[in-house]
Task: inverse folding
């Protein structure tokens, strides 16, 4: 669905699958930066713990959109503050898989001015 939506909006899409290695995700963000690409990221639990990912996202020149399948604001208090949100241009949460589709639409809209 994401690939089709991106194609419909005139965007190329590259997936970086789920990883348990923070450094792999940071390397991918660096690759996106080098390619002048926007980033849609679901940092999972790293949203509250990874200053390294948040700092890396600061280098991005193109939009960064944080996506969460569930409403992260309903979580336990210690899981609510997102370091990534402080660096993202937008946050989409609680809309399930549709959040990724809306993020693609937002990237396309931002790119078209």
Result:
């Amino acid at each position: 669905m994401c690939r089709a939506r991106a194609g419909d909006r005139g965007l190329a899409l590259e997936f970086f699958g789920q990883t348990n290695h923070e450094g792999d995700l940071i390397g991918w963000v660096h690759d996106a930066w080098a390619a002048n690409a926007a980033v849609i990221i679901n940092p999972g639990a790293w949203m509250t713990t990874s200053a390294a990912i948040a700092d890396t996202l600061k280098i991005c020149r193109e939009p960064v959109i944080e996506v969460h399948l569930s409403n992260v604001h309903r979580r336990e208090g210690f899981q609510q503050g997102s370091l990534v949100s402080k660096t993202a241009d937008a946050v989409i949460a609680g809309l399930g898989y549709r959040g990724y589709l809306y993020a693609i639409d937002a990237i396309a809209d931002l790119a078209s001015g």
